[in-house]
Amino acid sequence: MSVPVNGENRRVRAGLLGLGTVGSGFIKALAQNGESIRQRTGCEIEIPYILVRNPSKERNVKVKPEQITTDPGVILSSTDIPVVIEVMGGIEPARTIILSALRAGKHVITANKELLAKHGPELLRAAEESGVQLLFEASVAGGIPVIRFLQGYLTANRVHEVSGILNGTTNYILTQMEQTGQSFAEVLAKAQELGYAEADPTSDVEGFDAAYKLAILTNLAYDVQVSPYEIPREGITSIQPLDLKWAREFGYVIKLIGRSRRTEAGIDVSVGPVLLPMSHPLARVNDVFNAVTISGDVVGDLTFIGKGAGEYPTASAVLEDLTALLRQPGQVLRSPNWETPVYPDVNQEAVRPFFVRFKAIVDTFAHAEHQFRLFITRSGGRIVRETGMASAKEAVGGYVVTGLEKSVLQAFLTGGMLEKLLHEPPLLIPCAEDETIDCQDAAFAAEPGLYAKSVEFMSQSV
Ligand SMILES: NC(=O)C1=CN([C@@H]2O[C@H](COP(=O)(O)OP(=O)(O)OC[C@H]3O[C@@H](n4cnc5c(N)ncnc54)[C@H](OP(=O)(O)O)[C@@H]3O)[C@@H](O)[C@H]2O)C=CC1
Ligand SMILES: N[C@@H](CC=O)C(=O)O
Predict the structure, then answer these.
(1) The Aspartate/homoserine dehydrogenase NAD-binding domain covers which part of the protein (predicted)?
(2) Model confidence over 158-190: pLDDT tens digits?
(3) Domains of the chain and CATH, by start
């Protein structure tokens, strides 16, 4: 099914699947910029049908009642609708509808990272077989054109690393918890209100959403197929305002980072919280902003920063995909090749600094801490930063430990005697490799006690 080429001054009908945060943003942005899009592409965009689940729901955007439908068939069977825009989310029925649209010769634009990460190869194959485009700029990092960059520009480079802040909700939560001291639950509710979070926010806070996006970026960057199920993943639900406060006192901020790197053994890929030194370029990327750094062998490092969620940034990516189709209805971007499955290289064990926090009732804390110090010294590690506080009932300590592998620390913290002494599971977060730690280690060696601060027991509650 063809889309009119530039300059034909024709009307293009697109079917919209979903009228939630992104769908409404799309309609509003189209109303705002439809005329300038027409001038630039020669096409007037018309949305004859919008698929929703609940037709009687009140909408925060103006659409005509006759546009609303609950039947995807009206869009799929219309021969004068060459483009389908899927912003409904979830796997089914989105997968079946997109496959039907592609097989019916319609171009598809989607924001659905979960679907792409889990079923991307099947969808891309269907698009190729039908000679149509499957565009998905909005699926990663909201308004940042990172897909376009990987797929449309970086063809001559060999990319060796892709990393960044890939989830707006968690970045918003971490920033707001630190800056306002509000609880996790309060800030999450605000992120939902702002339209940043997924329909089930577990996907955001447990790191699934970032893993889907990282799988898409990894597949595009290295022409492989990494399953999101294989990506080692940790979320932010165990992080408390106190951790963010102490991290800052130690010279860090906590960010949820997705990172994939080509190694000899395959792809080293992971999603999880990391303490970034304040000097790190991503340390100042706050609130709903995302950042993606791509490292190519010829170009070096490129970092993109922009809003990663919310109605307008995401609508912008969807609308840009649509205008790209109108301007260039043939092959818009390099065909992705996601046919070679690779398994993440999960055996990477780096000796790097780690932030550790544990809590115990006051009576047992001193014993727990003594065991911890003994273990660190005997294992050849060092505590280079420490702090703590206590109330009448419980005490908590925060530390930066160097010289040990994660598995060694983890085995001690979660197994055996220490666990029995603790109030709640301990927190263990890696710190980004950075020269400052080495410098501080040197100072610490020269002047013991300069950085290791004795635990202050305060009367305020923990
Ligand atoms: N929110 C964001 O910032 C971003 C979201 N995305 C992705 O965009 C997609 C949409 O997200 P978002 O707009 O936030 O989601 P919402 O939950 O706000 O909206 C989903 C819309 O799809 C409709 N819908 C859902 N399931 C069905 C179904 N089975 N049949 C018919 N209609 C259905 C809903 O109908 P009804 O209104 O009647 O319930 C609703 O209008 C998701 O894939 C998400 O991951 C990507 C980037 C950013
Ligand atoms: N829930 C997602 C929305 C955009 O992809 C996020 O918070 O990043």
Answers:
(1) 18-137
(2) 999 999 999 999 999 999 999 999 999 999 999
(3) 10-139 (3.40.50.720), 146-308 (3.30.360.10), 354-446 (3.30.70)
